[in-house]
UniProtKB/TrEMBL annotation, chain A:
It is found in: Cell membrane. Keywords: ATP-binding, Cell membrane, Ion transport, Magnesium, Membrane, Metal-binding, Nucleotide-binding, Phosphoprotein, Translocase, Transmembrane, Transmembrane helix, Transport. Pfam families: ATPase-cat_bd, E1-E2_ATPase, HMA, Hydrolase. PROSITE patterns: ATPASE_E1_E2, COF_2, HMA_2. InterPro entries: ATPase-cat-bd, ATPase_P-typ_cyto_dom_N, ATPase_P-typ_P_site, ATPase_P-typ_TM_dom_sf, ATPase_P-typ_transduc_dom_A_sf, ATPase_P-type_domA, HAD-like_sf, HAD_sf. SUPFAM superfamilies: Calcium ATPase, transduction domain A, Calcium ATPase, transmembrane domain M, HAD-like, HMA, heavy metal-associated domain. The lineage of its organism: Bacteria, Pseudomonadati, Pseudomonadota, Gammaproteobacteria, Cellvibrionales. Its main location: membrane. This is Cadmium-translocating P-type ATPase. It is a multi-pass membrane protein. The keyword NADP does not apply. The chain crosses the membrane at residues 91-108, 178-198, 210-231, 243-265, 271-289, 423-445, 451-474, 748-764. Residues 90-156 form the HMA domain. Belongs to the cation transport ATPase (P-type) (TC 3.A.3) family. Type IB subfamily.
From TrEMBL, chain B:
Keywords: Membrane, Transmembrane, Transmembrane helix. The keyword Ribosomal protein does not apply. It comes from the Bacteria. InterPro entries: Cyt_oxidase_maturation_cbb3 (IPR004714). The chain crosses the membrane at residues 6-26. NCBIfam families: ccoS. This is Cbb3-type cytochrome oxidase assembly protein CcoS.
Length: 814, 58
């Protein structure tokens, strides 16, 4: 087998002859797009990029119109993402798709830095944002976009900068609080050690008094600045009349601080400054980790609005102008070329074409549009040009309606949090009752000790370990899963994953790559080779944007066709080297019926004026990791099933190839859902893995769901997790990790509850000295945090340790 | 022991300074992207070596 494409890592189709000399060695490329990008990188003297990168680059898009960036030079568009900078310069904020590792940052900064007029480039790999300072006299924003596209990235103006800046300021605030709590804790602990030595003596000496005052000084910002989020959250939850974990947390911090303050000022009783600080620090740490995971999940699944093109070709009767999509209004006429994404809802005025509406309806076959048919924003024009009158743009399109639906779905509170809150409610009640009764009883026995006993009950039972038990384990497991390539979006996934008994896969795009490939060629005429058939077919397909045309991409450019004509839904014809060829459905190509050979895939016929030349079978290919993943899941005791909407022969072949015994073909979205409901009624817990919009109902209905990275956005937003790298083996690893996480959560809860059960009666009896209460509380949370951290270092795989990193091969070649 | 009255406030002042520096760093975006910045230095050094090498070759 040939080595994979050096740029994007995808397999190089046989017969492809694209290559680029990188660092003195010719490297094969899978397509003209990768070739162009790699040449641009090398000619800029930046081939070091290939040595530093840790992941393969994305495959660049091809056949984009040349002038599509010019609209960004219009002043009214620029004001959305370009701001004034010092000294007459301007700063553009861009969102850059395709950044995979730190080497990309280096490449972008170097490549843009070579252009005249660019002052400063700074790229953030984790948010995929770039800030570019440039001199508007020397360079226009469109040139920035063009330069980024040249090296294989997908730039877009960062117009949603508001949301981004909210995330950034939230993140910074969390870090500041964490810093204050951390440094404060270190300092207070030092004083506390000194205090521990004098604590047993009873009388408050001069030094002890001094140390207390210093501790108070250091702990005060920790309580009033770092711990403020807990107080405001507790207030919020009290206002909505339910007890959340924040209530006892703030009660413990607040009362312990108040009592310590009192003790310091009047020189009586005990101080708890170090416990307060340490507790605050641990809790903040857990929440910061959680918040970061949440933000990253939000960044990965961008808005639906990004599916729309950025500019449209408006036609005002005499000339065509490229305008920003935001400038479109109802009544405008726009021109759509084949392959264009439709920017607004509208009605066809001229032309006839097949339109891919799979995004909206889940139907993957092209929809025929003639004069008068409605078209919708977000769908893709298939094979010929259309003139469309806009009926609705922007917020009133159908796409926006779906987007609003998705946003509402995201606001729903995950079940996990609700459960933790219920547990907390009971726990808080018990602790408050215990503290109050201890106070009442001691008031009778010894009024001078009553307050201190009640306080030590609150401090000792302080719910730190309990409130950290679940979130710490979840945060650490979530981070680990992200390292493995599974982005967890729904909080309940880790809770349901260990209980799963059945995994259901969708076929196209999930088990398979979702890209058509040539499976087989049947030659019908002597003197023709497979290579020539591919070249001719590629030349005929070179101008169309039909999904099937992608199968021929690798052979494009070997021959050129003229007078190309697309017959929607039937086939293509064109002139190559003086001969007329047709490619497509048999009845169209040779005007008579002829039976296609047996075998899997979709059969196309190639013919010239004399007669049939060859049959070409196109089909999808299984992902490399599929068979292994199915085997691993089976070993873990899970049943695996394939549910597909496609016809049976193809499904059967793929199921056999992947090693799945249980499969079902020809299932509509409703069938899929009812099939799953049946399984669930039989007591099974189902994990659904899918990618299409037609999977959305099943994804929402399943106990747990995973969407592929390439999935439609709606599918991603309805799934509990997104599989980032397309490696299905991660699923088995995730289930194993989730099982381990469940064990850790149980250990943590058992520890926290056990600790409280022992400590509470002791404290109520007045047997716990304050230093012991402080140490006990800190230790109990430390144990929980350390136990949870074991998850983030958990071994990546179930048993299999031979994980093949796709990028190892090219790097070894260096 | 009396020196403690003098030394501990100094320690506290140092902590306050450390927090001030930390705030400055956070507000200036030093912690926004921890992945890239740690590696940047590696790229820079190797790049100059390799680009002069390629220039020589050409």
């Amino acid at each position: 087998m040939k080595s994979p494409c050096y740029h994007c890592g995808l397999p190089v189709p046989a017969g492809s002859n694209h290559s680029v000399v990188i660092e003195g060695v010719p490297r094969s490329m899978c397509c003209p797009g990768c070739e162009a990008v790699a040449s641009a990188i090398v000619s800029g003297g930046l081939d070091g990029f290939y040595r530093y990168r840790e992941k393969q680059s994305d495959r660049p898009e091809q056949n984009q119109p040349q002038d599509r960036w010019s609209a960004y030079d219009l002043p009214e568009v620029q004001q959305l993402f370009v701001h004034d900078w010092d000294g007459g310069r301007q700063m553009a904020a861009l969102l850059i798709g395709g950044i995979t590792c730190a080497a990309c940052v280096w490449l972008i900064e170097k490549h843009l830095g070579q252009l005249a007029g660019i002052e400063k480039v700074s790229v953030n790999a984790s948010t995929q944002r770039a800030q570019i300072v440039f001199d508007p006299e020397q360079i226009q924003p469109s040139a920035l976009f063009e330069a980024l596209e040249q090296i294989g990235y997908r730039p877009a103006p960062a117009t949603a900068a508001n949301r981004e800046s909210v995330i950034q300021s939230e993140h910074r605030a969390a870090l500041r609080r964490l810093g204050v709590a951390g440094l404060g804790t270190m300092q207070v602990m030092m004083f506390a050690i000194a205090l521990y030595f004098g604590a047993g003596s009873g009388d408050v000496g001069e030094f002890e008094r001094y140390f207390r005052w210093v501790s108070l000084l250091v702990a005060t910002p920790v309580v009033f600045y770092a711990a403020r989020p807990f107080f405001s959250a507790a207030l919020r939850s009290l206002r909505t009349r339910h007890l959340s974990m924040d209530v006892p947390v703030s009660l413990a911090i607040g009362l312990a601080y108040g009592a310590s303050f009192y003790a310091t000022v009047f020189g009586t009783g005990e101080v708890y400054f170090e416990s307060i600080s340490m507790f605050t620090f641990f809790l903040l740490l857990g929440r910061t980790v959680e918040m970061r995971a949440r933000h990253r999940a939000g960044l990965a699944s961008g808005g639906l609005a990004q599916l729309l093109p950025m500019t449209a070709a408006r036609y005002d009767g005499t000339e065509v102008a490229h305008v920003p999509v935001a400038a479109l209004a109802a009544g405008d006429r726009i021109l759509l070329r084949p392959g264009d994404t439709i920017p607004a809802d509208g009605e066809v005025l001229e032309g006839e074409s097949g339109v891919d509406e799979s995004l909206l309806s889940g139907e993957s076959a092209l929809q025929q549009k003639t004069v008068g048919s409605p078209v919708y924003a977000g769908s893709v024009n298939g094979d010929s040009s259309l003139t469309v009158r806009v009926t609705a743009a922007g917020k009133s399109t159908r796409l926006s309606a779906i987007e609003r639906l998705v946003e509402r779905a995201q606001l729903e509170k995950p079940a996990q949090v609700a459960l933790a809150d219920r547990v907390a409610g009971i726990f808080v009640g018990v602790v408050l009752v215990a503290a109050l009764s201890a106070f009442a009883v001691w008031w009778q026995l010894d009024p001078s000790r009553a307050f201190w006993v009640a306080l030590s009950v609150l401090v000792v039972t302080c719910p730190c370990a309990l409130s950290l038990a679940t979130p710490a384990a979840l945060a650490s497991a979530t981070l680990r899963l992200q390292e493995l390539g599974l982005l967890v979006a729904g909080g309940s996934l880790l809770e349901t994953l260990p209980r799963i008994s059945r995994v259901v896969f969708d076929k196209t795009g999930t088990l398979t790559r979702g890209e058509p490939r040539i499976l087989h060629i049947d030659l019908l005429r002597d003197g023709w080779t497979e290579q020539k058939v591919k070249d001719v077919a590629a030349a005929l397909e070179s101008q169309t944007h039909h999904p099937l045309a992608r199968a021929f991409r690798a052979w494009r450019g070997n021959l050129t066709a003229s007078q190309l004509k697309v017959h929607t839904g039937r086939g293509l014809e064109g002139q190559i080297e003086g001969n007329r060829y047709r490619l497509g459905r048999a009845d169209f190509v040779i005007m008579q019926s002829i039976t296609a050979p047996q075998g899997e895939g979709q059969w196309l016929l190639l013919a010239d004026e004399v007669g049939a030349i060859a049959w070409i079978a196109l089909g999808d290919k299984l992902r490399d990791s599929a068979a292994q993943a199915v085997e691993q899941l089976g070993q873990m005791g899970l049943s695996v099933e394939l549910l597909s909407g496609d016809q049976s022969a193809e499904v059967k072949r793929l199921a056999a190839q992947a090693g799945i015994e249980c499969f079902r073909a020809g299932a509509s979205p409703e069938d899929k859902l009812s099939h799953m409901k049946q399984r669930q009624d039989a007591g099974e817990k189902v994990l659904m893995v899918g990618d299409g919009l037609n999977d959305v109902p099943v994804l929402s209905g399943a106990d747990a769901s995973v969407a592929m990275m390439s999935a439609a956005d709606l599918a991603q937003s309805r799934a509990d997790a997104i599989l980032l790298n397309g490696d299905l083996r991660v699923l088995a690893q995730s289930v194993a990790l989730a099982r381990k996480c469940r064990r850790v959560v149980r250990q943590n809860l058992a520890w926290a509850l056990g600790y409280n059960v022992i400590a509470l009666p002791l404290a109520v009896c007045g047997l716990v000295p304050p230093w012991a209460a402080a140490i006990g509380m800190s230790l109990s949370s430390l144990v929980v945090v350390i136990n949870a951290l074991r998850l983030s270092r958990a071994a990546p795989s179930t048993e299999d340790t031979t994980r093949v990193e796709p990028n190892i091969r090219p790097r070894l070649a260096d | 022991m009396d020196s403690l009255y003098f030394l501990i406030p100094i320690a506290v002042v140092f902590v306050a300074l450390a927090i001030k520096v930390f705030f400055w760093a956070v507000n200036n975006g030093q912690y926004d992207d921890l992945e890239t910045e740690g590696r940047r230095i590696l790229f820079e050094d190797d790049l100059q070596a390799s680009s002069t090498k390629t220039e020589e070759k050409e």
